[in-house]
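Structure first, sequence second, as always.
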């Protein structure tokens, strides 16, 4: 399918798929959405939660839809600020191209041009191997379908950033969320931009405790699920 780079409302870029009328990130602001959903209500929430018995300095994250690498990059920046050690796994069946990566403006928009080498490295490192990207951030990129994930009680946080249910409803089913539930450690957190009722019910059906939260710009609500 054809993909094109567009600029979202906060000035940051994303990839648009005309055939689906779908974007990799919110057209209301790619960076704003990423920070609101995955950092504020995912990473920061977990760090300040009293539910986990283990040290919050060492955090394991699974991203469902590595895509442009934006969520991984801002998590890397947050790890440095908060002095965290992040073990990051990004699952992506259809990696973006080198030309698309070069066209993304995240380092400039985030005023992180001095970290451009890290953003580039996120994309250039080999798949299926763990790499030390920065002092407190390791990355493994896995080229597989979400339905093929077999991890058990491995992650503290899941960033569920799949394409929306309107275009890929099969990614928002009980069978997929059962895989997510199994992959999380006890008291683990799953966050997603979606607030669709069918997704919430699918999460609840496999055992998650789900809460609706205020959404990022352009969306009224989002979901956070706790194991």
């Amino acid at each position: 399918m054809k993909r094109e780079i567009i600029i979202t409302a906060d000035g940051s870029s994303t990839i648009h798929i005309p055939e689906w009328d779908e974007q990799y990130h919110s057209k209301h602001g790619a960076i704003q959405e990423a920070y609101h959903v995955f950092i504020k209500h995912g990473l920061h929430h977990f760090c300040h939660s009293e539910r986990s018995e283990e040290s919050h300095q060492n955090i394991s994250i699974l991203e469902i839809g590595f895509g442009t690498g934006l969520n991984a990059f801002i998590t890397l920046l947050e790890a440095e600020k908060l002095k965290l050690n992040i073990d990051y796994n990004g699952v992506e069946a259809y990696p973006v191209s080198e030309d698309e990566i070069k066209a993304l403006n995240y380092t400039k928009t985030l005023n992180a041009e001095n970290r451009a080498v890290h953003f580039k490295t996120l994309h250039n490192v080999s798949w299926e191997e763990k790499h030390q990207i920065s002092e407190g951030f390791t990355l493994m990129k896995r080229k597989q379908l979400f339905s093929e994930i077999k991890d058990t009680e491995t992650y503290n946080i899941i960033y569920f950033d799949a394409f929306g249910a309107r275009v890929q409803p099969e990614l928002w089913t009980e069978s997929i969320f059962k895989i997510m539930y199994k992959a999380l450690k006890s008291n683990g957190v799953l966050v997603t931009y979606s607030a669709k009722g069918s997704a919430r019910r699918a999460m609840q059906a496999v055992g998650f405790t789900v809460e609706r939260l205020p959404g990022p710009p352009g969306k009224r609500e989002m979901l956070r699920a706790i194991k």
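Margin note: Residues 30-48 form the longest helix (19 residues).
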